[in-house]
Amino acid sequence: MQNPPPNRRYLLKALAGMGVLAPLPLWAAPLPTMEEVAFDPDIPALGNPDGNVTVVEYTDYQCPYCKLSYIELSKVMAEDGNIRLVLRDWPIFGQVSRNAALLTLASHSQGRYAEAVKTLMTANERLTFRNTANLLSNAGIDVELARNELGARQDIFVSLLTRTEAQAKAFQLKGTPGFLIGKSLYKRGMTADDFRKAIAQARA
User: Fold this and answer.
1) Would you state the torsion angle of the CA atoms of residues 27, 167, 85, 143, taken in this order, to the nearest 10 degrees?
2) CB 187 within 8 A of CB 178
3) What single string gives the DSSP state of each residue in 170-202?
4) Calpha distance 164→169 (Å, rounded)
5) Upper half-sphere CA count for residue 63 (Cβ side, 13 Å)
6) Which pLDDT tens digit goes with each residue over 88-137?
7) 98-112 confidence digits (pLDDT tens)
8) In which element (H, E) is residue 72 found?
9) Residues 9, 10, 13, 15, CA torsion sign
10) What is the residue-wise DSSP string for 119-145?
């Protein structure tokens, strides 16, 4: 029997206990370029597509710290209309995570990508193949249509996940989440205050 997922209060306390986040500066090649990371044509941008700062998150829909960080970042985005968010799916928790990532990306053709992301990022239950489909369906996504989209564009979606994994490894991320904000890389979960500071630094 699986243990229940940790609750958000516990996770938020854990994030806050990590102390001040020290950004890791990005150096030159062979790291991927900002254009490759933040402006991949196959990833829809969330928030303000024309925002003056881009937050890139390497994420997995089954990672509790990814989910909490998304909720914390959403608070900041509600205050600040100039944030552009790019989620790079790195499904390190196996096939259920990979399925969730692919279905969410495929929902973009229905104009429901943001709804799909929010639904899975705020889901309290552990994901399975079945409840991922149910959650997305309840959020208004036509899951069968999304699956057809995956079948028609499989090479594009698989290539996208491959690019993201290669980037995560180039940045030496040990797991999810990881954030690229401006020219700084953060290798852990972040609170709303962490995001505010990192975004201000990126704009400075």
Assistant:
1) 180
2) yes
3) HTT--SS-EEEETTEEE-S---HHHHHHHHHHH
4) 9
5) 23
6) 999 999 999 999 999 999 999 999 999 999 999 999 999 999 999 999 99
7) 999 999 999 999 999
8) helix 64-79
9) negative
10) HHHT--SPP-HHHHHHHHHHTT--HHH
